[in-house]
Design goal:
By secondary structure, this protein is α+β, with helices and mostly antiparallel strands. It is built from 16 helices and 21 strands. Helix 12 packs antiparallel against helix 15.
Length: 405
C-alpha cells in the first residue's frame, strides 16, 4: 500500500496542480499504455486488483511472447473484427510505432519467420513489464495494487482495498478490465453486472482463439493424442488458415485452428482439412499411379497419424479407391461438437458492444467513462494481434483525452 492509500484525502488532491485527473482501472496492456500516454499531460492513478499489474504479459510469455505482428497499414487492419472499429487506433499506432515505443525503453524486438514480433533474445516477459513499470514510475503515475473496482455511485466509481472502500474523484475514468480469458491473470469477467447497473448493455462472453471439440474414435485418440498435424490448411465456412494443429483429448488446437474459430462460433459445424496443401489433387493421383491401395498413403507422403485420421473419418471405400482417397486427403471433413471453455481460451469476444462507444472509446451514455482492451467486443487472431489491439486502444483513448483538454 502506498501513501495515497494511507490517506484517503489524497485521492482528492492528486489533480490540484490543474492537470486533468484520470483514473485507470486495470493494469493490463491497454491500461498500461493509456497511463504511459497520459502521464505527461495528466495526473494519473492506476488501480489494479491483483498484487501486480501486467500479469497477462507473464502468462502470455509462457507460450512465446508475441508483442505484435510485423504487418502494418491496411494489412494489419484486416486481422480485426468488426471491420473498421479499430482502424483509427491501429493506423495511428501500428506495429511499427509500438516497436519504436518499446525500443525507447530498451526493449529491442525481432521478427520471426511468421511475422510475429518478439523481444530480442535474452529479454524475458517479466523484464519487458519491469521496463514499462519503470517508465510509468519516472512519469509519476501512481499505481495502487490490490484495489478492486466494485461499482458506481452517483456518477462516480467505487474502489475498495483490504481496509476500506472509497469513491474516485477523477475527471475521466478508463476501464481496462479484461474479458473472461485466463482467469489467473485477473480477467475473470465479473464486472458486467456493475455496468448493467448503470444501463450499459454487456454482451455474454464467448471463447475465441481456443481449441475445438471433436468426438474422436477411441482407438484413434489413444494412439495419437498430443501429436501435431503439420503443414495443413484448415477451412471453416469462409475462414481459412494454414499451419499446425495439435490432436488433443478433446479435439484440436493450434495456430491453424484459432483463426477459424469465429466461423464455428457463428454456427459452422465442421472443419475441412487439406492434409496436402502443397500438392494438387491431380499431382497426388499422379504419384499414386497404379499402386496398390495399401501403398496410397506412402505414395503421397502421408504420415501414419494423418493416414489414421483420414481412415477415422472416411468410408472404407476411400482406402481402396485412389480418386476417393485423394479427394478426402484434400478435403477431410471433421465434425466439430463445440468450442473449449472460456477458462481455456486465449481471448474472448463479448463485453461492451462497439456501438455503445464513441470513436474515442468513451461510453455514449457516460462520456466520462472509457472502455478499452478485451472488455470490448472485438476480435483478432493470435500472433501478436491481440496485444497490438490492446496497446492501440489504450493509446487512442488517452490521446483523445489529451486533445479534449
Amino acid at each position: 500500500m502506498n501513501l495515497l492509500d494511507q490517506n484517503p484525502d489524497l485521492h482528492l488532491l492528486c489533480g490540484m496542480s490543474g492537470k486533468l485527473r484520470v483514473a485507470i482501472i486495470g493494469g493490463g496492456p491497454a491500461g498500461l499504455m493509456a497511463a504511459a500516454t497520459l502521464a505527461p499531460h495528466a495526473a494519473v492513478d492506476l488501480y489494479e486488483h491483483g498484487k501486480q499489474p501486467g500479469r497477462k504479459f507473464l502468462v502470455a510469455g509462457q507460450g512465446g511472447f508475441n508483442l505484435t505482428n510485423a504487418v502494418d497499414g491496411d494489412a494489419l487492419l484486416r486481422h480485426y473484427s468488426p471491420p473498421g472499429f479499430l482502424d483509427a487506433a491501429l493506423r495511428a499506432f501500428g506495429s511499427g510505432a509500438l516497436r519504436e515505443w518499446l525500443a525507447g525503453m530498451g526493449v529491442e524486438t525481432w521478427e520471426g519467420s511468421s511475422g510475429r514480433v518478439f523481444p530480442r533474445k535474452g529479454i524475458k516477459p517479466v523484464q519487458v513489464l519491469e521496463r514499462i513499470l519503470q517508465q510509468l514510475g519516472q512519469q509519476d503515475v501512481r499505481i495502487h495494487t490490490e484495489h478492486a473496482f466494485t461499482g458506481f455511485h452517483e456518477g462516480k466509481v467505487r474502489v475498495e482495498n483490504k481496509e476500506r472502500s472509497f469513491l474516485l474523484e477523477a475527471d475521466r475514468v478508463i476501464f481496462a478490465l479484461g474479458g473472461a480469458s485466463w482467469p489467473v491473470t485477473g480477467s475473470t469477467g465479473i464486472w458486467p453486472a456493475l455496468f448493467r447497473g448503470i444501463g450499459v448493455e454487456v454482451l455474454p462472453f464467448s471463447s475465441s482463439n481456443c481449441g475445438v471439440e471433436v468426438a474422436w474414435p477411441a482407438a484413434f485418440i489413444q494412439a495419437h493424442e498430443g501429436k501435431p498435424l503439420k503443414n495443413v490448411r484448415i477451412t471453416a465456412g469462409k475462414l481459412q488458415a494454414w499451419g499446425e494443429a495439435t490432436i488433443t483429448r478433446h479435439g484440436l488446437e493450434g495456430n491453424a485452428i484459432y483463426p477459424v474459430v469465429p466461423a464455428l462460433r457463428d454456427g459452422v459445424q465442421e472443419l475441412v482439412i487439406d492434409l496436402k496443401p502443397d500438392s494438387t489433387g491431380a499431382r497426388l493421383l499422379e504419384r499414386i499411379g497404379n499402386k496398390a491401395a495399401r501403398h496410397f498413403a506412402e505414395a503421397v507422403h502421408l504420415g501414419r497419424m494423418e493416414h489414421a485420421l483420414l481412415k477415422a473419418f472416411t468410408p472404407k471405400e476411400a482406402s481402396r479407391d485412389a480418386g476417393l482417397f485423394v479427394r478426402h486427403a484434400k478435403a477431410l471433413r471433421i465434425p466439430v461438437t463445440g468450442l473449449r471453455p472460456i477458462g481455456e481460451a486465449i481471448s474472448t469476444v463479448g463485453g461492451i458492444p462497439v456501438d455503445a462507444l464513441t470513436p474515442d472509446f468513451s461510453l455514449r451514455d457516460h462520456p466520462r467513462f472509457f472502455t478499452i482492451g478485451e472488455m470490448v467486443d472485438w476480435d483478432a487472431p493470435t500472433g501478436g494481434f491481440l496485444l497490438q489491439g490492446c496497446f492501440a486502444m489504450g493509446r487512442h483513448a488517452a490521446q483523445a483525452m489529451v486533445r479534449d483538454t
